């Protein structure tokens, strides 16, 4: 975590404002109002100085004193009005900017192409569009305007103090000058532990989730002590890092807090020097100077607290900025064949991978064809399908696709609602007959009829009321219902028995005959003889392609896979009477 300097503060603010979208002007306007509010906060103190001067000059006119009081009330009312207006403006603008960031981010994800890091880059999309965007919108709508207000008040108060009593102002300036290195020292001490603290907290979260998710296995296999010790180590590590922060960082921040309190002592020292110098009205001026010194000191502690969170804010701003820059990167050229899937030298390299997941693939899947992609685990089959589904942008080369695509991922995503709602997502507005036909084609219809409520049965959050096989069949039915020219299926029959598998294969053949380009990634090869082309992948490249018969004759990899498939087909469960 970097120590925040003045130029760095300005850079973070500028970067954040560039992400405000249509709300940028309102946020800047809100910052101006907050600065005015901060200046108005000094108004009563300045009027008090003038009133004290009048009293010292024996001008004790009731009317004049009443005027000062009225002026203070007017300033307080003006400050409240400006504060309310600024809050309404900046809060709504902050939320507007957050909504714009999420809208543009999600629109680009489901648009023609996602960013290079893509929708499936681990938790990047969730983190950037979720917690990072919340940090940015809170910074724009609250923290940045508040920092402006908290900075304006001591600046205005110090200028007034410099006019009223230069000696007191000089004493305060000396303490402020000493407070800057102390504050930076405190920040630097915390920065040494920030990464360890973040990693330790993440490890603790992971350990807790792993322990809770695996509780059945832990109990079944007697791993309570072993896994409990692993959780205890994560808890102990998190406690230790917090203890080190408490011992080494808190004293540094306490020193800075004491320096702020020393501002009052410095003001008193300056007042003593000014009193020694004497002069008419010295007492009144010194009393007024002390009031202004308090207005200098009061906001600094809160301002320091706001600045402490800026390194984390800067990291979130940088991630959101990088995400949106990637989303607006160069798009793939228009597809000359609107219904075809065409890979042209496509390369996909993940950030943390030693080799490309997809490496220079050129492949065409015309309309009315069934393409089956096979290969060993880690060959790049699913990554190829993700490129075809536009969930990733190719690192190099191009992937040309139809405008609309139907996808059944290996890990299906369901939405809260009914079974029918989730199937109908493949074709909004589809009638009951079409929904039921898709369910039959996916070997789901009989299962649904056995559920309480049938097609109106609720699937629960993320489909948690369904089994893994039922979720997969529902996702398959949703994909089969679509009328998209390109249908992409990742392991569509892995949860089906042989009879239902043949039913799905027949359905895919009918879709192919109707003109749909069907691409299937699978480890189960029963569908391969029906394919127009079988594509064999290894290490991210296509090693062989052609019909089932051709590839069987030329590819040792495919021949081994096919022989394993045939052996599995001969397996039988033997029982004894």
Automatic annotation (TrEMBL):
<dbReference type="InterPro" id="IPR036640">
    <property type="entry name" value="ABC1_TM_sf"/>
</dbReference>
<dbReference type="GO" id="GO:0005886">
    <property type="term" value="C:plasma membrane"/>
</dbReference>
<dbReference type="Pfam" id="PF00005">
    <property type="entry name" value="ABC_tran"/>
</dbReference>
<dbReference type="GO" id="GO:0016887">
    <property type="term" value="F:ATP hydrolysis activity"/>
</dbReference>
<dbReference type="GO" id="GO:0005524">
    <property type="term" value="F:ATP binding"/>
</dbReference>
<feature type="transmembrane region" description="Helical">
    <location>
        <begin position="35"/>
        <end position="53"/>
    </location>
</feature>
<keyword id="KW-0547">Nucleotide-binding</keyword>
<feature type="transmembrane region" description="Helical">
    <location>
        <begin position="249"/>
        <end position="269"/>
    </location>
</feature>
<keyword id="KW-0067">ATP-binding</keyword>
<dbReference type="GO" id="GO:0034040">
    <property type="term" value="F:ATPase-coupled lipid transmembrane transporter activity"/>
</dbReference>
<keyword id="KW-0472">Membrane</keyword>
<feature type="domain" description="ABC transporter">
    <location>
        <begin position="341"/>
        <end position="564"/>
    </location>
</feature>
<dbReference type="GO" id="GO:0140359">
    <property type="term" value="F:ABC-type transporter activity"/>
</dbReference>
<feature type="domain" description="ABC transmembrane type-1">
    <location>
        <begin position="47"/>
        <end position="312"/>
    </location>
</feature>
<protein>
    <recommendedName>
        <fullName>ABC transporter ATP-binding protein</fullName>
    </recommendedName>
</protein>
<keyword id="KW-0812">Transmembrane</keyword>
<dbReference type="InterPro" id="IPR017871">
    <property type="entry name" value="ABC_transporter-like_CS"/>
</dbReference>
<feature type="transmembrane region" description="Helical">
    <location>
        <begin position="155"/>
        <end position="183"/>
    </location>
</feature>
<dbReference type="InterPro" id="IPR027417">
    <property type="entry name" value="P-loop_NTPase"/>
</dbReference>
<feature type="transmembrane region" description="Helical">
    <location>
        <begin position="65"/>
        <end position="87"/>
    </location>
</feature>
<keyword id="KW-1133">Transmembrane helix</keyword>
<dbReference type="Pfam" id="PF00664">
    <property type="entry name" value="ABC_membrane"/>
</dbReference>
<dbReference type="InterPro" id="IPR003593">
    <property type="entry name" value="AAA+_ATPase"/>
</dbReference>
<dbReference type="InterPro" id="IPR003439">
    <property type="entry name" value="ABC_transporter-like_ATP-bd"/>
</dbReference>
<dbReference type="InterPro" id="IPR011527">
    <property type="entry name" value="ABC1_TM_dom"/>
</dbReference>
<dbReference type="InterPro" id="IPR039421">
    <property type="entry name" value="Type_1_exporter"/>
</dbReference>
